[in-house]
């Protein structure tokens, strides 16, 4: 639920064209940029004044920096566990491939520029008291609230069987899309009528409604009925429901019954079949939206740090494995390609379909259905030499490219 946040008016930024190219690289170390909002998070809990958001010290003196976003909390009522869980959820949204660098630098820059943050207090009552006492200091920032009482590191969807949903998945995504994506790509993700996202939402609601209608038309699958939620708020909620459903975050026992009054397409399969317009936006690689649902276990994976995208072998044979995260819905066909030079003459190892998990030795393969946007782990063993050189480059391509 979108509660209170301060968002500036849209600016006129045009989306530049982007060319889709997905490469698989084998990883090592790299030098980090010295800009503070580009550094990988260390998840250190800081106390005192945040130089980027100094006025928050009076009310929210505890904070963690996650790239260009800050997670602030009150001095009491929010446990370190829940504060750090929220920080790791934020890190997973911004660095979804866990290589220690943000996936979309423009969005991260915008979060930093508008001084965006999550503010945490014990519960809704504590948050209301906080706002009543210190509301004037919040006007300089772009903030989204998150209660400790609704932050559940061991709740659903992280743990099936839990009767508590981890709301950090929702509130943190709200600030990233509202203060980030909608401002960097106003024509696409803008929270105003006529953006591509808003057009998709209008279709999902059964028409354009500036205000929440008394009832939605038959066939609508997005039927949010909170009358305090403005049109922009409705857009924010819509992308949350769509993206988390695509990534499997709303698909667990009892969830459809719980949320069905406002959202019907709670599984990836139903969303792909029922709302193609939003799926096209969410899976467009130009925008670098998350491809995997954050789970609170963010950790930089050293094998995802860019190096020379080649493998050195002694005998011209290979034995290794890598993980591919695919920015496409189930059913998109790809080939794993190997060559002795980037873009050079290649040998197709195997054809794969997004949504499958493949493990193979030579030409053999096994398939296991997984949700779109999840990873494909490929194990390669004893592949014959492509050329005399022991250097091998691997990438994905769609058949015919």
Tell me about this structure.
This protein is an alpha+beta fold. It folds into three domains: 33-185; 186-286, no CATH class; 308-397. The protein has helices spanning 80-94, 105-113, 124-134, 168-184, 186-189, 196-205, 231-246, 255-259, 268-274, 276-282; strands spanning 23-24, 46-47, 62-66, 69-73, 116-121, 142-147, 319-325, 333-339, 346-353, 375-381, 393-397. It has a five-stranded mixed sheet. Strands 1-11-8-9 form a four-stranded antiparallel sheet, with no helix packed on it. 41% of the residues are buried. Mean pLDDT is 76; it is low at 4-34, 302-332 and 340-392.
Main attributes of the structure:
4-stranded antiparallel sheet, 401 residues, 3 domains, 10 helices, alpha+beta
Q: How are the strands of the biggest sheet laid out side by side? A: 2-3-4-5-6
Secondary-structure element pattern, one letter each: EEEEHHEHEHHHHHHHEEEEE
Major β-sheet annotation: 5 strands, mixed
Helix content: 25-40%
Shape: globular
C-alpha Rg (nearest Å): 22 Å
Brief account:
This protein has ten helices and eleven strands. It has helices at 80-94, 105-113, 124-134, 168-184, 186-189, 196-205, 231-246, 255-259, 268-274, 276-282; strands spanning 23-24, 46-47, 62-66, 69-73, 116-121, 142-147, 319-325, 333-339, 346-353, 375-381, 393-397.
């Amino acid at each position: 639920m979108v509660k209170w946040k301060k968002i500036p008016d849209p600016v006129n930024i045009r989306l530049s064209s982007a060319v889709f190219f997905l490469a698989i690289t084998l990883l090592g170390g790299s030098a980090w940029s010295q800009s503070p909002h580009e550094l990988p998070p260390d998840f250190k809990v800081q106390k005192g004044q945040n130089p980027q958001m100094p006025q928050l010290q009076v009310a929210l003196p505890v904070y963690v920096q996650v790239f260009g976003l800050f997670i602030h909390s009150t001095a009491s009522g929010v446990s370190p566990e829940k504060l750090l869980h929220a920080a790791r959820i934020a890190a997973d949204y911004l660095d979804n491939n866990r290589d220690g660098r943000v996936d979309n630098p423009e969005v991260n820059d915008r979060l930093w520029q508008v001084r965006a943050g999550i503010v945490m207090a014990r519960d809704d009552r504590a948050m209301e008291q906080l706002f009543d006492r210190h509301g004037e200091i919040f006007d300089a920032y772009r903030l989204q609230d998150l209660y400790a009482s609704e932050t559940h590191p061991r709740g659903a969807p992280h743990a099936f069987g839990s009767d508590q949903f981890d709301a950090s998945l929702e509130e943190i995504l709200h600030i990233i899309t509202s203060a980030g994506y909608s401002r960097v790509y106003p024509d696409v993700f803008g929270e105003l009528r006529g953006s591509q996202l808003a057009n998709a939402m209008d279709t999902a609601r059964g028409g354009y409604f500036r205000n929440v209608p008394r009832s939605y038309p038959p066939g609508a699958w997005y039927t949010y009925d909170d009358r305090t939620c403005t049109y922009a708020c409705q857009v924010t909620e819509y992308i949350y429901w769509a993206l988390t459903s695509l990534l499997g975050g709303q698909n667990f026992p009892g969830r459809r019954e719980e949320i069905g009054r406002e959202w019907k397409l709670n599984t990836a399969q139903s969303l792909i079949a029922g709302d193609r317009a939003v799926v096209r936006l969410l899976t467009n690689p130009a925008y670098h939206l998350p491809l995997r649902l954050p789970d609170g276990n963010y950790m930089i994976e050293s094998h995802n740090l860019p190096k020379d995208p080649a493998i050195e072998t002694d005998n011209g044979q290979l034995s290794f494995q890598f993980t591919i995260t695919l920015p496409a819905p189930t059913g998109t066909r790809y080939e794993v390609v190997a060559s002795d030079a980037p873009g050079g003459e290649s040998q197709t190892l195997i054809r794969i379909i997004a949504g499958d998990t493949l493990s193979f030795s030579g030409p053999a393969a096994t398939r296991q259905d997984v949700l779109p946007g999840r990873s494909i782990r490929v194990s390669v063993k004893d592949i014959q030499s492509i050329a005399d050189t022991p250097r091998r480059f691997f990438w994905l391509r769609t058949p015919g490219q």
